[in-house]
Every structure is written in structure tokens, then in C-alpha cells.
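Project channel, design review

CF: Before we commit to the Spirochaeta isovalerica constructs, I'd like one complete example in the thread so the newer folks can see what an input/output pair looks like. Taking [FeFe] hydrogenase H-cluster maturation GTPase HydF.
RD: sounds good, go ahead.
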Amino acid sequence: MATALAESTRIVLIGIRNAGKSSLMNTLFEKDISIISSTPGTTTDPVTRQMELGALGPVAITDTAGLDDEGELGKMRVMKTLESSAASAINIFVTPQDKAPTIEEKEILKELLIKNSRTPLVCVLTHSDCPANIEKVELVSPVPKVKVNNLTGEGAQQLRNLLIEQKEKLIPEMTPLEGLVDEGDLAVLVTPIDLAAPKGRLIMPQVQTIRDLLDKDCASLVVKERELYSFYNNLIQKPKLVITDSQVFHKVAADIPENQLLTSFSILFARKKGDLEEFIKGIINLKKTPEGGRILVMESCSHHRQADDIGTVRIPRLFRQLVHSNVEFDFTRTLPSDEDLEKYYMVIHCAGCMINREKMMDRLERIRRKGVFITNYGLFLGWVNGLLPRALEPFRDLYEEYREAFD
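CF: and here is what came back for [FeFe] hydrogenase H-cluster maturation GTPase HydF:
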């Protein structure tokens, strides 16, 4: 089974039109992935393909539209390119070595160098069989670089090696249960099978949590909420941790002892993908929601919404019942512009299991810069069910921080 895109190291090719990005994509994969043409603007939407890249493991490489694309459609394509770059783990700046730098190249390289402290940057000089432009050489001098001839493939292996070297600069995404269980522990996973559950399989957070338990030499017991009480009370070895789907928090808490550590998949992934402390600040500020405030519910994947959908139905209903009745809700799967973000008091985000940490942290940073609070589904539903700070007990520092805020 292929590694999920969200768990692959994201690498993005970025540059102006006809810099050789699509040709480089084909060179790296040694087959035709992207359409290439001398006509500027051949690539209109990001094209992503996966491969294994040595010690770097599974990677997802994205070919993007040129940064100098023109017209209204061109501006939209450039926005998509910048979104892809913001979610990347490694950026590859692709530029023809024989041409003088364009204004767009100078601007984007300046931005990429600023981001380089947290997102590794490498440069590929295409047209390597042509004489190098002096100004171009000076422009890219601060960046690790390699020359690649897309016609012959010369330099491709050096590029792969350079990408693998960036592994040391990457901040590894923590696993769902990092620091929460030890070898030999038992964890109980409560997984409702309702109308919203995908047919014939578990959802991504459940799958990844089970795999993490196996990797840590732990045991797992997977039950539906209806069977939890009887199975739990028949256990000789009590679990180190009970992990539940957020929507059955209340029932699960009622069926296990109060001293049993309890949390949710959504809270685990809030920590894995984003900033759990920032999400807790959102919960602390729930009751300060102003009259007529606007709340944005944001999801990261497309799925068929059921009649009692958690994001579009349950959360707005519970918010109006328990926080403030006079609020407006909007729903989105993409981050709004900075101008539109300013309209909101709070963003309530899904677990983010289908996006990588880089994309989630980029969203968090943009939301935070606009002074907008953010929390996630699991924490909100834990609060609704009176299970905070209990659901934070596995994370002792954050548990204490939450308690102090409400003392």
C-alpha cells in the first residue's frame, strides 16, 4: 500500500515559466509525468507524484505553475504554487542558469531564503549545457545547488543525493502516541462505525495510531462504543490509555473509571500535526466570543457530508447551545485570504489527518498573525462534554496550563 500523501516528505518545484520544472520532474522520475512544451504556462495546476528516495523515505514531489504566469487565471495559478510551497518540507528553486534573473525570481528566492530556517531550500540550475549568467550565479550563491541537464539526465543523481542530505535539517513529525506509551502497554481504541464511517476500512487517524502501537511493541484493543463497557471490565490488564473518536466522548467517559487516562484521536493529531497549546488557547477563549461573532469551521479533506455531519451540523448546534446563540458560521476546506480571515473570531479545525504538519503549521501561523483564535474538533467536543481537562491528562504540562486558566 502506498504511503499516504500526508505522511510523505513534500518536495515542491518552484520557479518561473519555462524554467524546466516539468522537465526536471520527468528527469527525477525517469518517465513522462508532466507535459513539457516550449509554450510558456504548460503546467496549469500542481502535479504531485510519489516515490521512495533513499534515506529520505517516501516523498511526494509537486510540479507547479510558473511564478510569472499572467492574467486572472495566471494569478490564481501562482496562488496555488505559493500554497504548495507553504506546505512543503523541502523547496527546490528551479532556474535556467543561462538567463538573467527576473523580478519574480528575485522576489521568491528572497522569500524562500527567509523560510529556509524551517524549510530546507536547494537550487537546480537547468540549461546546464549553456554558459552561466553571472548575475544568476550570484543570485543563487547562498543556496546549495546542482546543475541538471534535463535532456541527458546528467546531474539528476547529484540532485537526489542533495535532497537526501536535507533529511538532517527536517524536523520529524511526531508519532500519534510519542511519549504516551511504553513497550508492553495496552491501549483501547474506541472507533464508532456509523453512517459517516468509510465502508470497509478505518479512518486515517485510527490506522496510524494502531500502527504506532505496533511500532512501539504495544498491544491494542479496538472496540465500538457499544462494546467498550463489557470488554473493559473483563480486562485483567487495564489499559495505559483509552483513545476515542470525539463524537462518543461522553459515552466512553461514562463507561470507564475516572482515573483511567482518556483522550481522543483528534487531540492526538492536534499535537502531531499542529500546536496543541495554541488549540487549548482557543478553548480558553471560547466564552469570550462576541455577540454576532463569526466562526470558521475548516476541514482538510473532501468527504460526503451526512445529515448529522460533525463539522457543518453538530459543532454549530453545540456552539450555539453552549457558547453563544448569536454567531455566524462559515465552512471551508481551504484557508481564506488574509483579508477574509480578519472577519473571524475563531477557527475550529478538523484533526488535519489528510495534510502534513508543514501545511497545518502554515495555516496556524497565518491565522495567529491575524489575531484569530483556533481550536480543533476534538478539543471542542471534549469541552462540550465536560471532559476537559480530563482528556488532556496524558499531556501533563498542558493539563496543568488548562487547569490554571480556569482556577
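RD: helpful, thanks. The chain has three domains: 5-169, 186-268, 274-384.
CF: Residues 134 and 197 are 58 Å apart (CA to CA).
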